[in-house]
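Input record, target 12 of the design panel.
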C-alpha cells in the first residue's frame, strides 16, 4: 500500500461540515501538546510522538517513503 499524502484526518463518531476541520483539530491538539514546554522538552515529545506513530504504522516501506518525502526540499 502506498503512503497516503492526501488529507485523511477524522475522529470516530464525529461528523464534520468542512473537509479541513479535522486537520485543524489535529493542528490545535499538536500545538497544545507543546504548550509550556521548553525547546528541549518539545523536541523530546516530538521524537516520542514520531516513534509511537511509526510503531502504530509498522510498515517499514511506508515509513521509509514518509521519511523520504519529509526530507524532500529541506
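The sequence produced for target 12 reads:
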Amino acid at each position: 500500500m502506498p503512503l497516503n499524502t492526501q488529507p485523511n484526518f477524522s475522529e470516530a463518531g464525529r461528523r464534520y461540515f468542512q473537509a479541513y476541520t479535522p486537520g485543524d483539530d489535529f493542528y490545535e491538539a499538536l500545538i497544545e501538546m507543546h504548550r509550556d514546554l521548553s525547546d528541549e522538552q518539545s523536541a523530546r515529545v516530538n521524537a516520542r510522538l514520531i516513534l509511537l506513530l511509526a510503531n502504530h504504522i509498522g510498515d517499514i516501506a511506508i515509513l521509509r517513503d514518509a521519511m523520504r518525502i519529509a526530507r524532500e526540499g529541506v
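The chain has three helices and no strands.
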